[in-house]
Amino acid sequence: DGTVPISYNRSQEFAVRAIHALETGISAKIYGNVPNDGCISNLPADTVVEVPCWVDRHGIQPCHVGALPPQLAAVMQPHAAVYDLALRGVLCKDRALIRQAIMLDPLTQAALSLSQIDRMVDELFADNAAYAQYLTTCYTVE
């Protein structure tokens, strides 16, 4: 309504810094969620990881991190497997895989019994029926 002046100072959010680097070519270091592709050697190559990235006029270049301490990789592996299963469920239009992914999630398991998770998933599908109508047919994923 014009009563408060608009600030035109650039914020320090990653997206602003990344866009500035892409447009000007002035390098910026951000932390981005990117396909692993070996950035973290002891996590699956096809999972998404958050790693340091250099951004400039040539795009976003993820940095190689190497291996995580084994105890940290062990904590992350189950989550990567759950996300992979959930994604397969969506891509294959398979509600059973989505249900299994939620049942296997360590945080969900810590809070709910299997029967409670089963009811919760039914409620989620019911509450989101307009968005999940296509999740009725199962296709095989290789």
Structural summary, described in words:
By secondary structure, the chain is α+β, with helices and mostly antiparallel strands. It contains 5 helices and 3 strands, in the order H-E-E-E-H-H-H-H. It has a 3-stranded antiparallel sheet with strand order 1-2-3. Strand 2 and strand 3 form a beta hairpin. Helix 2 (70-91) runs antiparallel to helix 3 (95-104). The chain is extended, with a radius of gyration of 20 Å. Residues 138-142 have low confidence and may be disordered.
Q: What is the mean predicted local confidence, pLDDT? A: 88
Cα end-to-end separation: 56 Å
For the largest sheet, list the strands in their spatial order. 1-2-3
> If helices are DSSP runs of H or I spanning 4 or more residues, what is the number of helices?
5
Please indicate the percent range of residues in DSSP E strands (runs of 2 or more).
5-15%
SS-derived structural category: alpha+beta
Shape: extended
Major β-sheet, in short?
3 strands, antiparallel
- Spell the H/E element sequence: HEEEHHHH
Question: What is Rg?
Answer: 20 Å
Tag the structure with descriptive keywords.
single chain; 142 residues; alpha+beta; 3-stranded antiparallel sheet; 5 helices; 3 strands; extended
Short description:
This protein is an alpha+beta fold and 142 residues long. The protein has helices at 14-24, 70-91, 95-104, 106-111, 114-127; strands at 28-35, 48-56, 59-62. Strands 1-2-3 form a 3-stranded antiparallel sheet.
List the helices and strands and how they pair.
Layout: H1 14-24, E1 28-35, E2 48-56, E3 59-62, H2 70-91, H3 95-104, H4 106-111, H5 114-127
Antiparallel strand pairs: 1-2, 2-3
Helix pairs in contact: 2-3
